[in-house]
Description:
- The structure is a single chain.
- By secondary structure, the chain is of the alpha+beta class.
- It has 11 helices and 4 strands; from the N terminus they run ββββααααααααααα.
- The radius of gyration is 19 Å and the shape is globular.
Amino acid sequence: MLTIVQIFNNNVALIKLNDNRQAIVKGKGIVFQKKKGDQVDVNQVEKIFYLETAESKENLYFLLKDIPIDIVTTTYEIVDVAQKTFGFSVLDYVYITLSDHIYGVYKRIQANDYHESLVPDMHTEYPTECAIGRKAVEIVSNNLHIQLPNSEVKSIALHFINAQGTPGADKLDESLTTSVNDIVQEILNQNHILRTKENGNYYDRLMVHLQYLVDRLNQSDTHSSAFTESLENSLENSYPSSARIAKEIFDNLQKQLSATLGDNEKLYFIIHIQRLINEQPKNTDINGGIQNGK
């Protein structure tokens, strides 16, 4: 039995299964004229995305605050394909980062304000992630009826590179998470970066990123390469203030926690800080998949 917990629109709903697990179901008119507590016809289900962990449930409601359900379900489909077709394990927070990226790209394309990302080619070093990116572009095009540029393959691949891991493999260390948050917030405060009504969504996404950062401490970045260096140089040239603050966060976390962070973390700190302070690009224009990509 598939019992409706929450209806998002006529085609999408949150349901409870017999074993009390929850999932998102999608199908044309699947919950038309239905209400909470009614049953969904299993024969009408076209897609089902299981919410296996408490984090995945929390992330769903976090997303629904400001991202359309069609973007959210498209993201769940992409992650589902990555896991089942490519055998790629990711941490749950990829749902937030990837949804946010796709929504940003969607809005810029609709506004005719899209600029291609200058992310360097990485298909040799990250063949699986790039294959997922290519499939993701197809899924977005089919579901949202927009044609993504080929450069989005690399931008989407970045999200899977950064979020690779085993969901639920380790319980988050609350004490360590608190230490990470304290270190970062102290540096933000020193640089007069506070949570405001205008930057609240970006600030919250940084906090989510930090929550899962604990899972990645001391994981050596074996793929650190010319690609990472090239991307970091581009970001530093375009957003020098953001890069300076990001480096301060990166260095302080490693020093105070006696931990090792992968080089990709610094890249994403730059992206988060740029969005928080709304630093405008200098020299190189990389707005396409980087500025608002995470």
